[in-house]
Amino acid sequence: MSRDSIRADLAVIGAGAAGLVTSAGAAMLGRKVVLFEAGEMGGDCLNYGCVPSKALLTAAHKAHEVRQAARWGVQAELKAIDFAQVRKTISAAIAAIEPNDSQARFEGLGVKVVRERARFTGPRTVASDSVSVTARRIVIASGTRARIPAIEGLDALPVLTNESIWSLESLPQSLIILGAGPIGVELGQAFARLGSQVTIIEPGEPLARFEPEHAALVLETLKADGVTLITGEAPMRASGGPGAVEITLADGRSVTGTHILAAAGREPVLDGLGLDAAGVQTDAGGLIVDDRLRTTNKRVLAAGDIAGKGGLTHLAGWHGSVIIRNLYFGLPTRQSSQPIPQAVYCDPPLANAGLTQGQAREIHGAKVQVTRWPFADNDRAIAEGDTRGGVILVSGKGAKLLGAHAAGARADDLIHLASAVMARGGTVRDLTNMVAAYPTRAEIFKRAGGKYYESAVFGPFARTLAGVLNAFH
Ligand SMILES: Cc1cc2nc3c(=O)[nH]c(=O)nc-3n(C[C@H](O)[C@H](O)[C@H](O)COP(=O)(O)OP(=O)(O)OC[C@H]3O[C@@H](n4cnc5c(N)ncnc54)[C@H](O)[C@@H]3O)c2cc1C
Ligand SMILES: NC(=O)c1ccc[n+]([C@@H]2O[C@H](COP(=O)([O-])OP(=O)(O)OC[C@H]3O[C@@H](n4cnc5c(N)ncnc54)[C@H](O)[C@@H]3O)[C@@H](O)[C@H]2O)c1
């Protein structure tokens, strides 16, 4: 096959968040960039992940609000869920964001976009059907896909994934979800609130990346939403067919449903990439990548989910920035140098940034202090009638803020207060120094910070000092 030969500064494989940020950054610095995309521009986040799931959750939370409205004296009745209209709002959200990630926009930035599957043909060469690109640097940003767990009989069933679930034309009557990570919990709550009978099966710890006391709040809410949550039991066997599936658990119990969704983790998309031709090595976890995102071929870098450092869109974007800083600004930057916030957009939302209590103790030992403040003592939360959750601050020597954890309404946005402090290496004092508007949920960080300093500010020394000063006034 004859292909056009191109020389470029940068070749990028995959136009998801990681590949797009990297390509845009390099092109805006005047570098010649070729971007390969075998599927949809925007990758998982736009088409099959963050955007559709948040739009679906919005419909679900609206339904929930209508059901709950009488508590606030608002008499409303939920007549029906128009799933076709729900799907339209999902498509509209994707369509509204799509121009940011589009081929036209990237071509406008000067990127050559090749809508074909790419593979390595040498240490510095990547080829697709129509072009062969020799580049000074190559970025693999090929993402991950849903892992279908190895359960006897499952491969014979129509298993939904985060890609196919958006094509459902009607609400699943009864949905079995394998896995209670962020995907299982967000989609489980969404479908339950829209009217599906949902069962989530989780062999390990649900929402394991979040503080257990915060995760527990979500699990309670899921139960109130009518979700059946089975934990600590592994699915052993799957049987049935389209419209009637059955999962048998290790203890012999069985669960039946009309649909089944795999939300049991991800696997790297490395197939057909020809990594051997480039000397790029993998291990059981995927690509071998250092803290500056270099693979075992130092001219080939990895960004986003495929780098194996976590699966978040903003982390993928950060990887793009790290690569641009290292390659084109000569600013040595490690991908681990920033706290990465994460959130689960269920009700109540969960969020965290920085270290957990356990991680902080492992690194900083006895210097670690943990300070809590509940929304039950936040006037806005009380006025809103939703006092679930609170915040946990994890701090180290000199009150340096090491981690922050939040659960409760708007925790997903509030976490950025703490995240901003941590990004500049700040302390708990930075949270107490701000004057917070009253009544806001954001005050909770100031109150938690205030609690940290309580003994110092109002302790015996401060009392004595106040007494002495009083004597002279
Ligand atoms: C249901 C769901 C909800 C999510 N919600 C959130 C959320 O709320 N917030 C959040 O931060 N993250 C969320 N995520 C995670 C987020 O979607 C991913 O972290 C993000 O999409 C990773 O971006 P990426 O660029 O690494 O990979 P991807 O988005 O997967 O993009 C990789 C691209 O590479 C292309 N590709 C692969 N191989 C080749 C090849 N050989 N040649 C050419 N092209 C190739 C693929 O077609 C794909 O378009 C969610 C994920 C899912 C599944
Ligand atoms: N709000 C967000 O930021 C958001 C939302 C969705 C997804 N994501 C990202 O997408 C990625 C994937 O999410 P996820 O929830 O699929 O993965 P995950 O790895 O976080 O959770 C998967 C869960 O499946 C369980 N599991 C493993 N094997 C199983 C089996 N055989 N049967 C049933 N359960 C099994 C695991 O114990 C785990 O709890 C993550 O990186 C996540 O960060 C982020």
TrEMBL record:
Disulfide pairings: 45-50
Coiled coil: none
Keyword Ion transport assigned: no
Binding-site list for NAD(+): 179-186, 202, 265, 305
Cofactor note: Binds 1 FAD per subunit.
Cofactor requirement: FAD
Protein name per Swiss-Prot or TrEMBL: FAD-binding protein
Pfam families assigned to the protein according to its UniProt record, in alphabetical order: Pyr_redox_2, Pyr_redox_dim
Repeat found in the keyword field: no
Family annotation (InterPro entries): FAD/NAD-bd_sf, FAD/NAD-binding_dom, FAD/NAD-linked_Rdtase_dimer_sf, Pyr_nuc-diS_OxRdtase, Pyr_nucl-diS_OxRdtase_dimer, Pyr_OxRdtase_I_AS
GO MF annotation list: flavin adenine dinucleotide binding; NAD(P)H dehydrogenase (quinone) activity; oxidoreductase activity, acting on a sulfur group of donors, NAD(P) as acceptor
Family stated for the protein in its record: Belongs to the class-I pyridine nucleotide-disulfide oxidoreductase family.
Residues annotated for FAD binding in this entry: 54
Pyridine nucleotide-disulphide oxidoreductase dimerisation domain segment(s): 340-448
Domain FAD/NAD(P)-binding: 9-320
Keyword annotations from UniProtKB, A to Z: Disulfide bond, FAD, Flavoprotein, NAD, NADP, Nucleotide-binding, Oxidoreductase, Redox-active center
